[in-house]
Amino acid sequence: MNNWVVAPMLIPLFTAVLLIFLNKRLRLQRWISLISVMLNAAAAVFLMIQVRTGGIQTLNMSGWAPPYGIVLVADMFAVLLVLAASIVSACCLLYSFRGIDEDREKHYFYPLVHFMLAGVNGSFLTGDLFNLFVCFELMLMSSYALIVLGGTKRQFRETLHYILINVLSSTLFVASVAYLYGATGTLNLAHLSLRIAESGQSGPITAVAALLLVVFSVKAGLFLFFWLPGSYGAPPAAISALFGALLTKVGMYALIRVFTLVFYHETSVTHTLIGLMGIATIVLGGFGAVSQTNVNRILGYNVIASIGFISLALAVSNEDALKGAVFYLVHDMIVKALLFLLAGILVAETGTERINRMGGALIHSPLLGWMFLAASLAVVGVPPLSGFPGKLLILQGSLEEGRYVIAAAGVLLSLLLLYSLIKIFILGFWGEPRHPREAHWKQPRKLLLSSAPLMLLIVLLGLFAEPVMPYMQRAADILNEPSIYIQAVLKE
Amino acid sequence: MEVVVAIIVGVLFAVGIYLILTQDVLRIVLGTSILTHAVHLLLMAMSMLKTGSAPLLGRGKETFVDPLPQALILTSIVINFGITAFFLVLAYRAYQKLDTTDMDRMPSESSRHRGQSR
């Protein structure tokens, strides 16, 4: 029992409620938001130290013992993602101080972001399937409001699609919870794993696993991603950065957690399916990114393609691949937020989202150009940056298992993404400026400052991968050996 | 009894999906609402409908109904209520802004200058 486990969920929740009452006082709102996210990051670091020294930390809500009550579980995987989410959202908030118009700020932008963070952190930390659903809904409800905030025509249309698709998948989520409860009589993840291991993963349970796979795939944008590029391109850059960095990764986390902890018996069915979906996602997402001319859509397809890549690691599911998946997931959260923020500055700078109407941005803001190039190289996995170790481990893991098709798909993905991002760089930054610089736009340097911490993190994670690796190793150990998780949750 | 409920769940699922596949936003909202109610019934049927008395201790009863699915349904109803309310308001605002409730007639990406909308 450790009360700190609930802190990353409580801090944003209280902040959000507080900020609703401070609606009119923008300066105060900004400061409180930033301090709250920093506190959250500090709490995550504190938890991480506890997890490193004392193993998995759990908290039984209201003192009900695990199979009956709701349990929160902080293992290394969850804590790493909570920390990454806090850092990313701090940078997105810094960006939004200047990158989002006052109208949006006054209409509850900050409270909504904090509600979303509470949902995201809750999804990472919960150890109960139905509680996962509730946290998902908390996160999605705020994301519905965030995506439509501002109310342009395009936002309305995209939000209708976005809500419909998410309501459908949530409905299927509850249906699969119902089936699982009917079959096993429990919803605690550790207890579910135990029960299914005892009775064997029979046909019906595998079918429920496939249903959950569909649910989480919709949330993560794995294969069922048709809604994603449009929806993520509709809101302003700070919001798309939050979405691109956090929401799909929560879906991916749920997939990894459920398919390594609970449904790991029938790998020939479920994990093969995940692998096929991953390869299809990589091919479709990669070519989608190459074929688009709109900056936000290119980045949307980039998000999809990386999700496909991480799911390949889940399909292989050996030690190296899972370690790589944890590393890559953390890296991907940071780098996707960075790309969306930089693209937001680029769009504001050139006044258009279409790359064939841009040009010459390098003349006005050279720093932005080189940061964008560095971030693109990090996505692809060029060695000194943080994309490399994760990608290497996943490819190594798939080659160890003799899964050559999967490894080939991973390499193909790098080439496609490199092409799509370099296309933005060449068309957007090189050449002569086509548009006169807009007079009202005079803050790119301050905006760049907000993405600098993310850039720094990418470089540091790449350079100092060696000291970070033990943490990833610990996270992957638990994914490899479900009994560690089960013992920590059920025995206390 | 469970068989009857199972059939009702199936019918509700069919109705909900039919409504979602139409083009009118209002029908789609109603469709999602019916679909979630179908799932709530499913959740209730999954724990067997009437296995004993109400789950209250100290009344001299031996067998109880499983209270957990009912708690889950309650939570899910509240969430669904919130989402349906938001969805309806959004549909209304979208109608005001886009002048149509037909999903197919909403202005498509290619017909307008994108990027100017900020």
From TrEMBL, chain A:
InterPro entries for the chain: CPA3_Na-H_Antiporter_D, NADH_UbQ_OxRdtase, ND/Mrp_TM
Parts of the chain that traverse the membrane: 6-22, 31-49, 69-95, 107-124, 130-150, 162-182, 202-228, 240-264, 270-291, 298-316, 328-348, 360-384, 404-426, 447-465
Keyword match tRNA processing: no
UniProt cross-references to Pfam families, sorted A to Z: Proton_antipo_M
Keyword Cell membrane attached: yes
Domain of life: Bacteria
This protein's UniProt keywords: Antiport, Cell membrane, Membrane, Transmembrane, Transmembrane helix, Transport
Domain annotation NADH:quinone oxidoreductase/Mrp antiporter transmembrane: ranges: 127-416
Membrane topology classification: Multi-pass membrane protein
Location(s) in or outside the cell: Cell membrane; Membrane
Family statement drawn from the similarity comment of this UniProt entry: Belongs to the CPA3 antiporters (TC 2.A.63) subunit D family.
NCBIfam families, A to Z: PRK07691.1, PRK12663.1
Name listed for the protein in its UniProt record: Na+/H+ antiporter subunit D
Lineage: Bacteria, Bacillati, Bacillota, Bacilli, Bacillales
From TrEMBL, chain B:
Keywords tagged on the record: Cell membrane, Membrane, Transmembrane, Transmembrane helix
Annotated compartments: Cell membrane
Annotated InterPro entries: CPA3_antiporter_subunitC, NUOK/Mnh_C1-like
Stored Pfam families: Oxidored_q2
Keyword Transmembrane: yes
Lipid bilayer topology: Multi-pass membrane protein
UniProt main location, coarse: membrane
TM stretches of this protein: 6-21, 28-49, 69-95
Gene3D superfamilies in the cross-refs: 1.10.287.3510
NCBIfam families, sorted: PRK08600.1 (NF006372)
Family classification: Belongs to the CPA3 antiporters (TC 2.A.63) subunit C family.
PANTHER family assigned to the protein according to its UniProt record, in alphabetical order: ANTIPORTER SUBUNIT MNHC2-RELATED
Name of protein: Na(+)/H(+) antiporter subunit C
